[in-house]
Amino acid sequence: MMYSFLRVLARIIFFLINGKMSIRNKNKIPEGNYILVAPHRTWFDPLYFALASSPKKFAFMAKKELFKNPILRFILVHANVLSVDRENPGPSVIKEPVKVLTKSDLSLIIFPSGTRHSSELKGGASLIAKLSNKPLVPAVYQGPLSLKALFSRKKTYVNFGDPIYIDRKVKLNDEAQKNIENQMQAAFDKLDKEINPNFKYVDISKKK
Questions:
Q1: What distance in Å separates the CA atoms of residue 129 and residue 121, rounded to the nearest whole number?
Q2: Would the pTM of this model clear 0.85, i.e. be above it?
Q3: Model confidence over 113-152: pLDDT tens digits?
Q4: How far lies 162's CA from each of 17, 88, 139, 186, 187, in Å?
């Protein structure tokens, strides 16, 4: 109930301050649960991905520090947000999302780079995809990168790519992991160019 309410609220707010977003290639999203993977470019792009993928509902992964505030913790828990200890990641970092994907009707949004300020792809998404036997669906967001820029009504885009399937029999050694990371990065680059051939992401935090 909380998730549905927040999704409607986010849709209304984003439409009022920024207008209607452009969604491309939504037909490429497979049936059933999947793992949406994307480069993390702004704090609100998870909301845009969730809205673009509607009516599908998602679970998210967020750093455990956000759960310290009891009010925020209540909202996060009821909005399907999973707590992640980035400093000391344990087995639950993999087990919990795998359980969500296999035991519920929720898909999962993961940013393989981990943070908005990193382009290095980590291996968690690949392992979760393998253990859950669910595909990775690459996607990209292009649009405003700050709350202030949202009010400029600059056009926003979400573009979906072809699913990436990982054979459960494949051993995720360094070579296999690197191959999957290359597939994801190639997909992100292709999706960005489909929206804007001249696109180049600029981390606004590094411009200050």
A1: 15
A2: yes
A3: 765 555 556 668 999 999 999 999 999 999 999 999 999 9
A4: 31, 33, 9, 11, 8
